[in-house]
Specification:
Number of strands: 3
Oligomer: single chain
Radius of gyration: 13 Å
Largest sheet: 3 strands, antiparallel
Shape: globular
Structural class: alpha+beta
Distance between the termini: 45 Å
């Protein structure tokens, strides 16, 4: 496996895929580093997610799956 040289932040990937950032955030929660999804921690423990090239491809596949069957995506926050 080649070394990862570049990762792309969620806002950039959302723009690139033409999808809502919040929706992609929910979908990406089921991805792992092996899928090309990495957690990035910054100053003051700010957290964001970033994707490798393979991660963008995997995320795009998940988008297609969820668009074909939206009921597969469970809401992360259930109202009581």
């Amino acid at each position: 496996m080649a070394a990862i040289e570049t990762v792309y932040t969620l806002p950039l990937v959302a723009k690139k895929l033409g999808e809502d950032e919040g929706w992609l955030w929910e979908i990406s929660c089921e991805m792992t580093p092996e899928d090309g999804c990495l957690g990035i921690i910054g100053l003051n423990d700010e957290y964001t997610v970033a994707f490798t090239d393979a991660g963008i491809e995997n995320l795009a596949e998940l988008v297609a799956i969820y668009k074909a069957n939206p009921s597969r995506l469970l809401p992360l926050h259930l109202d009581s």
